[in-house]
User: Fold PRC-barrel domain-containing protein from Tumebacillus amylolyticus.
Amino acid sequence: MRKARDLLGLPVVDLELGENIGEVRDVLFSPEGTFHSFLLERGGLLSVARILSRGALHSIGEDAIITQSRSSIEEYRDEVGLIRSLIDGDIHFVGKDVLTTSGTLLGSVEDVYLDENLHTIVGYEISEGFLMDLRQGRKLLHASPTIMMGADNLIVPDDTELTEAL
Assistant:
């Protein structure tokens, strides 16, 4: 497993020319919880967001993301509004509270764990607060179809148990 947050800030390198062509600013996911793309530049009033889609990746190393060429970078508009992001999108993971269906707060999402191929979310790193993190470490909420991601919270069944984070 690999934490999505560990990918933020990695340089994106063009394999043909060996040039740095961007930096990972966010990790985007499909509504089904599969890896969609890396956000390289956020859009603004006069600019369009740029992404590197999963299909354009050559490799994902410990220190850089490699793509076949600069032409792999695409303009991006989430016209449907369903794409989720790790940090900063309209629908994002980090900072959301995790509540049971009966209203018990389990903690807040600090990171997302991806499988080794970065295809699928396999879990969520949960913080129960600064002091609890220091005393017991962060927890892991395993990904499940029973988790409902709302605008402000992740809602989980009452019998959900957190395990030790990796």
Observations:
- The chain has a mean pLDDT of 89.
